[in-house]
Amino acid sequence: MSSQQKIDRLGPILHFRGGDESKIRVAAMIVSPETAPPPANITVRSGQIAPLLIATVAGLNFWRHDFTMAADEGGYRLGEAWYPVVTDLTGDMRIAFVSCNGEENGDLNRDSAERNIMWARLADEHSVSPFALLLQGGDQIYADEATKDHPLSEDWPEFAPENPDPQALASLTRHLQERFADRYMQILSAHVCAGIFATIPSLSIWDDHDICDGWGSLPEHLIKSEVGQAVFSVARQMYLLFQQGATDADIPALFWDPTGRNLGWQRDFPGVTIFAPDLRSERDRDDIMGPAGWRAMDALQPKGAHTIMVSSVPLLGPRLSLLETVMLAIPRMQHYEDDLRDQWQSHSHRDEWRRMLKQVLRLRESGPVTVVSGEIHLATRAVMGPQNTVINQLVASGISHRAPPSSYALCLGLFAGLGEAPLLGHPIRIKQLPGQKHRYVAQRNYLTMQRRKGHWTAKWHLEESGVTPALALDDERV
Ligand SMILES: [Fe+2]
Fold this sequence. Notes:
seven-stranded mixed beta sheet, 12 helices, 25% strand, globular, Alkaline phosphatase family protein, PhoD-like_MPP, Metallo-depent_PP-like
């Protein structure tokens, strides 16, 4: 674990709640020691907003200001400080998309400037041409090491003891709360990130590392064990607090399943519907989503002209099922086989994959659909045809997770050459980013999307190659 100094103050961190032609709704979270006085009021044109204490966990108070800014207001004041925010969501706008903010091992001990180099570029861009929204597509933290240093979870996720003593289990919960909180506090307060989180309202969906590596694809006895359930429930509590500015009490207002079994969400603002299915809470080795997620997905109705789906694992991918078959035959490849089982393209999820693709085609009847996705620590894109129902997928990953070797990217590119068509008549093609020779780019990266005069384009920001030419999302050819 980290040798770094403990961080006990954080924020404000903005969470996007919605908006229309005349206003934007946000929540600002401030975290401080439980012994500290409440933070100052936030001042907006409509008045003074007092903070609400929504939780006390791991010695920290979580304070939330819920407020609205008028479209021409341009920001908020906290104490003496002015925080500029894009409050007009009606015309030209920019959205940033990031994923995979961390690494499995030793992430807290990395050199901050090196770790956050892409964040620094995003911050520079934001200061020149501000973003209205920050989408975070999964693995906002890598919590894997949180289970270390406690006797019950020391060997997680390989082993979980049976029938642990209730006192030991309570101590594990406290241990995990502290470790998760420490990690979030340090990562979110990083020097170059703090200004971004305070001035760009964000929308997040989690992936496995926000819980632990491979959550949902692990063997059932581990998932269902008391240690496994403690890991999940602490990860969920912390995800709600740090990534959504929420607790269980907010679930019916913020998420599409009022029971909270699936933490997917939908947000609408002028001309845009953004939604993110939760592909982790209900997952097991057989199913990616359960009844709650599917019910919400079936009922989803886009309100905007352009629908953006945030998919924590890529929805459109190459024929990985072939690779999976090879790996199943080789025992030492088991771990990679587990990774592949996390993907929609796995043998075990093929029917569900088709179901999701059909749903996305249903949404496509209302207008263009763009899928943004992370998870693979590479930049790439894909299209699903035919032309009259084209779906674009933009993959950007990771913002701070270092890329795998380029040989891995080349190998994936070979599989991608095979193409795939899980739905008859709807071929999927993996394509090069504008200006790139290979289909997968092994560099750290993030994505920006911009609306100009009603038309959407996207650019990738690659660590070594720089910014790609713009890809037009409205008239992309299959
Ligand atoms: Fe990741």
